[in-house]
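Summarise this fold before class:
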Amino acid sequence: MSKLVRPLLGVGKVRDTATGAGCAVTARDWPFIARSGVILVRTRVAMVFLAVLALAVGLSTPAAAASPAPISAAPAKMAEGVPAFGHVFLIIGENTTYSHLTAVNAPYLLGTIRPSSAWLTSYYAATHWSQANYVALVTGQFTGCEQKDGGTACHQNVGNLFHQLDAAGLSWKVWLEAGTAKCDTGSGGTCTSNTPCPLTGFYTTGNPPILFDDIEGPGGVWSPATPSQECLANDIPAGTATAGMATFNASLAAGQVARFNMVIPNGCDDGEANCKPVNNRYTQFDDFLAQEVPKIEASPAFGSNGVIIVTYDEDERAGGLAPKNGFGSGGHVVCAVISPLATAGSYGQTYYHYSLLRTIEDGFSLSPYLGNANAVTPVNSIWGTPTG
């Protein structure tokens, strides 16, 4: 039976602890209420019964069936000027200096993406080499081991974007073009110039989830032999050896993709090296974008709040190995954001890989900010009229 709780002060509320309902009383009312509490409770139960009966009658009236609301149905509060994201697709190319891209070697990027995207003209990678930048993009930090592309030997027990998404109940996938295994900690091998396979060790340096103890390892203990079920489910090949993106493309067409998708092309399509038959590494990544970006935009998952981010891990290392934790020591690289949420145009504010991490965290309402994401501002200038 419900209990009536006496107010602590002379004037207060009598509250039914089972229903949470209450009414204002004065001190002189209390003796009567104490004697007639059963009547008050019974009266309140009767009122609740009538309300439930009325609701049941209303529910019995025929009505149109409700359909699941899309992600964009409920307006969300902007965090630091960044709107709420639906599905995000982060596509990463390799080792390309901003000034080396032209309308000839990157016609889709410069001729199609740039005019229709928020194009960041002063965006900088974190450091050299590649692995350190992939890690910086999802943790806000990197180590000396990762600066030397040390592969799985560099695994860390460190906060990361994937774990943040887990904690928020948001799904994620890393799609490895023509990957050979799930949660692949040992792939690589030799890449012939005309087959869709990674360069030596590529998927151990450009595949961040396998480097984090709380993602790769069962129970948070890193294990090269027994990866976690989470890693096996989310760090996956995007297709087959002969159709490198087939699985990803089918998921796009069905609208069945994760909220956050990191898309990692193979060692030819990412622009790492010249491969036959194109024999131009800049154009190889451009061709990959021309193949995949329209499919993402056409997916039911993209909708009115989807976000595609195209960037490169680092420039071509003209400056040699950068000091640890340098915000922009990885060089000037392209970063383009394609989204119905963003205003197309060129933006001159200086941003870093850490800025992009903070932006993704804001777009998914994740906290706390990771590593050096605390030390930068998010990319928040692109959600309105261009100013720089």
